[in-house]
Amino acid sequence: MMDQVNLGMIGGGTVGSGVVHALQQNAELMTSRTGVLIRLAKVAVKALDEPRPYPIPRVLMTTDWQAVVNDPQIQMVTELVGGTTLARTIVLAALRLGKPVITANKALLSAHGEELFAAAAKHGTNLYYEASVCGGIPIIKALREGFVGNRITHLYGIVNGTCNYILTRMKLEGADFDTVLKDAQAQGYAEAEPSLDVDGHDAQHKIGILASLAHGFWVNPKDIYVEGIRHISRIDIQFADRLGYTIKLLGIIKILPAATTKSRKPGSTAGARVQVSVYPTLVPNTHVLANVNHVFNAVFVRGNIVGDTLFYGRGAGKDATASAVLSDLVDAALDLKFATPHRIPPFAPHEKAGAVARIEDVVSRYFVRLSVSDVPGTLARITRILGEARIGISSVIQPEGHEGESVPLILMLHTAASGTVTAALSTISKLPVVKASPVLLRVETFE
Ligand code: NDP
Ligand code: HSE
Questions:
Q1: Residues above pLDDT 70, as percent of the chain
Q2: What is the pTM of this model?
Q3: Rounded to the nearest whole angstrom, what is the distance from the C-alpha of residue 85 to the centroid of ligand 1?
Q4: Known active-site residue 206
């Protein structure tokens, strides 16, 4: 039996150099636990002299990734390059040679997951991706293995470290969005293209992966409703706080109640319509997720057998992400040693009739901030439109202003379908007394 596995790494940046450093620290420990030595044979980078968070021994480095993938001595490959073009080529090249691949690339999986999983199966090997979701939190393993005996009815995740870092510092320090984003980039949390983070797409990729694993049908990223955090201002954060809430970019995966029909077998969710979305959400300050701050991520999972569970940890950064890669390296090395490449397939479709619900049909409570003229009749006009749409108001705040000037008007709305609320708000925004585009945020009750 094989006691040593040779690893070829492609990419030696934030995550890649973190993996090199982590192997230098703990490869021996991992061998003593698993009986297999993971030997780092080669690291391909783009430019040898590029500064990197941890040094990589020059003797291991090359700029020729193909030589690494094709080297017959190299038995498994990491793709830690990022993006979806070169990364796809690298992953397919290694899989075609029957070599297992470990990736941290959620954008790649989101765009090409089904193709890559099929290639792994065709060539008798596997694709491992623990590091692609929530950095150091072993959430993929939890969903695939720890909760294999559960129906996942609800999953709420703070899955983007950069956005959580920005929202936390805006709330706690009153910091400015652009300054905090620059800090997140300097610390290696942000994607090479930071709009992936702040516009919600990185969270979309991750939530799509978690939803697919939880519900057994591959979720097309186009079906996921996404809002980022660019439109969140300090005033929204302050009013939310005054009302007892914290704004978090939340990924939500939830079986809609309408899908729970009596005709279905107990515990079954066959044909379920599932909410899969990412948007800034008002989380009650008393809920544990409201207190997940800075770069930390957390995933709250409710299973029909286990009940409520919570996973918490660093969602980005060189060391936390390296930890998840190490876990995959061991799985891949053990699968090579015991010739069990399909012990845990990368994705096992088991609920082909499931579907993502339209956001218009998703029901929640809402926070609305309007900028209105402080003139007689303003409130009456707005409440009439909401009343006609059968949308209830649960509270109203309007700070004292000067007559005729613009003032913020905050409305908390009772439960209503998203489509109904956005239509009413579109009518409200056309009133002459409404001076700026309304801000609409959803409120989560976690019921
Ligand atoms: P970096 O930009 O820091 O690193 C990318 C690496 O790829 C660099 O070492 C670069 O080389 C190398 N590279 C680029 N082009 C080539 C090429 N043609 N041949 C060989 N190597 C090449 O990215 P990250 O480490 O931050 O991210 C890597 C992946 O991990 C991404 O998919 C990202 O989404 C994911 N991820 C990142 C996390 C984080 O906190 N940063 C957390 C979780 C996942 P060179 O160094 O010479 O420029
Ligand atoms: N840019 C990502 C984040 C890295 O901020 O969460 C981890 O996937």
A1: 97
A2: 0.96
A3: 13
A4: yes
